[in-house]
Amino acid sequence: MGFGVEKAFDHERLEVYGVAIEFVAVADALVEELPRGRAYLADQLQRAATSIALNIAEGAGERSTADKARFYRFACRSATESAAILDVMRTLELSEVPKLQQGRELLLRIVQMLVRLCQSLE
Q: pTM here?
């Protein structure tokens, strides 16, 4: 991850961060396909998807384990929010099921990794 520099930020060393960034790209592609009049969904999905990665980065930068866990829980909440948005898109038939499934699978991985991270900090 990173920009080809030898040193990395703490969050860039986390596998979950890489998956979160991958989900941001998937979410952006889904947003691009939304029909006019669905800006509310586009905005909500973009904010929730970005929030996953940002909270992981903030948590990784914390020194206190309690603070790390708190940010990882925030990221987990944003991941489940993103999953709910994908459910809305599926229900309203706003995207193809395989594309939504790809996003869902990434979100499941993210949540599983974040839960393990939080458990390791307890």
A: 0.92
